């Protein structure tokens, strides 16, 4: 009596399902490799070459990395970027959470208030830059007009090296807080209303309820917002081009802007590629730290 083992008959079926699954993933995988992994590999290879201003490229090893580490403008741009991220990320996320808590409660004009908070995120960055240039103008700016009316002297918001970077931070926080508020508001509205009722019955205060119930439930949303806020902080360039062009005295030169300047103004693509790899390593490290430390404290529903 001849027969075929059940394991043998099941194996082609399982294999065909696996092949079918990979075929479904193939279009997304092609785009992922073409627009993410390949550019990273090509940039890394470009960073190992030496060539400037159209001259023939030669393999140079880590020479470009040694060169940028000795570049004072690159070192300052890294410091500016880290400081910029350290200030803008907590402020944007904290303000977004406060706004979400404020508009989550029933009140008159809540829809209008939500729209007002979210409106800055809809404006193009160039329009935002020109709007804030009007506020920051040394002679006719609104901010200096208010300061003068209160008896204070005018401030050169974008021309003073000690103030210019903080002025850019204010623009970023103003724009991003409303965008992140939407995610916090959506997360708050998904929380079970029975939690509010149980806390009210137990006599829990609003602050105790927030820290013990709401905040732990918001941790997945917070991780998502932190990752996006970090990416936004490290990829800022258009506002700098429109408002300060990296000045004064490189006080507003952030890393991505300096990469753009090195590649397309100085035509030093090898050094720009090395800076890009450094930027990617910094972003990957920060993302890993966020997931490693915060993900352990996160409860996913």
UniProtKB/TrEMBL annotation:
InterPro entries linked: ABC_transporter_permease (IPR051393), MetI-like (IPR000515), MetI-like_sf (IPR035906)
Keyword Glycoprotein: no
Gene Ontology CC, one term: plasma membrane
Keywords: Cell membrane, Membrane, Transmembrane, Transmembrane helix, Transport
Topology class, membrane: Multi-pass membrane protein
Biological processes, Gene Ontology terms: transmembrane transport
Domain of life from the UniProt record: Bacteria
Annotated localization: Cell membrane
Domain ABC transmembrane type-1: 78-288
Gene3D superfamilies, sorted: MetI-like
CDD domains noted in UniProt: TM_PBP2
Transmembrane segments: 20-41, 82-103, 115-135, 165-188, 209-227, 272-293
Pfam families the record matches: BPD_transp_1
UniProt similarity note: Belongs to the binding-protein-dependent transport system permease family.
Name this protein carries in UniProt: ABC transmembrane type-1 domain-containing protein
Organism annotation: Acinetobacter nectaris CIP 110549
């Amino acid at each position: 009596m001849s027969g075929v083992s059940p394991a043998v008959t099941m194996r082609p079926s399982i294999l065909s399902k696996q092949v079918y699954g990979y075929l479904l993933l193939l279009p997304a995988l092609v785009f992922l490799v073409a627009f993410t992994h390949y550019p990273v590999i090509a940039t890394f290879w470009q960073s190992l070459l030496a060539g400037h201003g159209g001259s023939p490229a030669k393999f140079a090893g880590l020479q470009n990395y040694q060169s940028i580490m000795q570049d004072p403008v690159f070192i300052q741009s890294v410091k500016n970027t880290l400081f910029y991220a350290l200030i803008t990320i907590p402020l944007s996320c904290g303000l977004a959470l406060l706004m979400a808590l404020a508009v989550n409660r029933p009140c008159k004009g809540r829809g209008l208030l939500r729209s007002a908070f979210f409106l800055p995120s809809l404006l193009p960055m160039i329009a935002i830059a020109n709007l804030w240039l009007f506020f920051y103008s040394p002679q006719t700016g609104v901010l200096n007009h208010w300061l003068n009316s209160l008896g204070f002297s005018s401030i050169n918001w974008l021309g003073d090296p000690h103030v210019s970077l903080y002025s850019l931070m204010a623009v970023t926080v103003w724009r991003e807080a409303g965008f992140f508020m939407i995610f916090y508001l959506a997360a708050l509205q998904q929380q079970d209303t029975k939690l509010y009722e149980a806390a009210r019955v137990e006599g829990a205060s609003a602050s105790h309820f927030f820290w013990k119930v709401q905040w732990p439930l918001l941790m997945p949303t917070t991780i998502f917002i932190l990752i996006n806020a970090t990416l936004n902080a490290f990829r800022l360039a258009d506002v700098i081009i429109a408002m300060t062009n990296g000045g004064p005295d490189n006080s507003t030169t952030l890393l991505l802007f300096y990469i753009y300047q090195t590649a397309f103004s100085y035509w030093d693509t090898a050094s720009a590629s090395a800076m890009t790899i450094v930027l990617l390593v910094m972003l990957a490290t920060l993302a890993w730290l966020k997931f490693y430390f915060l993900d352990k404290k996160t409860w996913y529903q």
